[in-house]
Write a structure and sequence with these properties.
It is built from 14 helices and ten strands. The strands form four sheets. A three-stranded antiparallel beta sheet has the order 1-2-3, with helices on one face. A three-stranded antiparallel beta sheet has the order 4-5-8, with no helix packed on it. Strands 6-7 form a two-stranded antiparallel sheet. By secondary structure, it is α+β, with helices and mostly antiparallel strands. The chain folds into three domains: 58 residues, no CATH class; 82 residues, DNA polymerase, domain 1 (Orthogonal Bundle), CATH 1.10.150; 166 residues, Intergrase catalytic core (hpI Integrase, Chain A, Orthogonal Bundle).
Length: 369
């Protein structure tokens, strides 16, 4: 079609749309010129009129006379604009991950290609090459997601008329590690005293490591027994939690008593060193590794405590929707990986067929009304 309506979603999930004109014109010398532009009048009728004007200008040889059409940038040439967009819309950790994937994988392959010259065959060649290099499918998909976002930004900034469809590899759902109830007790007992409260709070609130490190006393209500997760830290960068939203986590008796006993006057951070400075990642990692070794367990990380929190809730029959809200997952799909741990989920499912269903009883070898 020469005239079409293009729709896309913004970062805020709002749907935007614009009428575009796509005209192919063959000059008398056999050269084919293609013009793809947004219509200055954003209606179907306006776009159709704009298409007729473009065709007339091409036929008369007056199109672009005296003006220079902006040259299509290469992928590498568009990176600065893409990173500016990302720095305005992403957390520091996400921006750093994008930069690493661009530098290590995307730019060496696509950097010299013009944006409108990257095709599906190029994408498939990239996948095959990275798999041959031994790159994990998940990492390949992360790189492809960055490339897909780059094309989307180019469309939003009207550099491209449409975004190339980037198909991801199929990957198996990753396994996750969690502690049994007995192992959780062992890890707490084996933890150094100065770290024990942080481990207990991790096991009983499901906070991420960066959220635990960034936790300050102003986010705690030790009278009402509530914790507000409103900060996260990554490599010294403080910001909002993952997903950009704060969340409230009720404190059970174990976490509440531990925090009351932990109260100190060293500064704003709940968990800190003797000078009141927030804890560094390496110190946190090593503390948990020491505890797991002392407890006779496999090496575990702070995210294992988060998985343990969620797993134990599901195993005790807590609804997945409640677990999702406590963990701060943006979608229920992330929480569903814990569903198989619920001891009664399948039993409750088949019990739904017991008794009368729509006025019909079945299960005795006969159907009666």
């Amino acid at each position: 079609m020469s005239v079409r309506l293009r729709k896309w979603k913004t970062k805020e999930a709002r749907v935007q749309e614009a009428w575009w004109v796509d005209v192919k014109f063959q000059h008398p010398d056999g050269r084919v010129e293609r013009v793809r532009k947004a219509s200055p009048v954003n209606t179907r009728r306006g776009a159709e009129q704009y298409e007729r004007e473009l065709r007339q200008a091409l036929l008369a040889g007056t199109y672009n006379r005296g003006t220079t059409e902006p040259e299509m940038p290469t992928v590498g040439g568009f990176i600065e604009r893409f990173l500016t967009y990302s720095s305005n819309n992403n957390k520091a950790s996400t921006l750093a991950a994008k930069q690493q994937l661009l530098d290590s994988h995307l730019l060496p392959t696509f950097g010299n290609l013009k944006l409108d010259r990257v095709g599906k065959a190029d994408i498939e060649t990239f996948k095959a090459q990275k798999r041959k290099e031994g790159l994990a499918p998940k990492t390949i998909n992360n790189a492809l997601t960055v490339l897909r976002t780059l094309f989307t930004v180019a469309v939003e900034q009207e550099v491209l008329s449409h975004a190339l469809r980037v198909k991801l590899l199929k990957v198996e759902k990753p396994d996750f590690d969690f502690l049994t109830f007995e192992e959780a007790e062992r890890i707490v007992s084996a933890t150094d005293p100065e770290w024990r409260t942080m481990v207990l709070v991790g096991l009983h609130t499901g906070l991420r490591r960066g959220e635990l490190i960034a936790l300050q006393w102003d986010a705690l209500d030790l009278v009402a027994g509530r914790l507000l997760v409103k900060r996260n830290v990554w490599r010294g960068h403080f910001g909002t939690p993952k997903g950009g939203r704060s969340r409230e986590v009720p404190l059970n008796a174990v976490a509440l008593e531990a925090l009351k006993a932990h109260r100190h006057l060293r500064g704003a951070f709940v968990f800190c060193d003797v000078q009141g400075t927030y804890l560094k990642n390496d110190a946190c990692r090593n503390a948990l590794l020491r505890a797991s070794k002392r407890a006779g367990l496999r090496p575990i990380g702070w995210h294992t405590l988060r998985h343990t929190f969620a797993s134990h809730l599901v195993m005790r029959g807590v609804p997945l929707k409640a677990v999702q809200e406590l963990l701060g997952h943006a979608s229920i799909e992330m929480t569903m990986r814990y569903a198989h741990l619920s001891p009664d989920v399948k039993k409750d499912a088949v019990r739904a067929l017991e008794g009368h269903t729509g006025g019909t009883r079945y299960g005795t070898g006969r159907i009666s009304q």
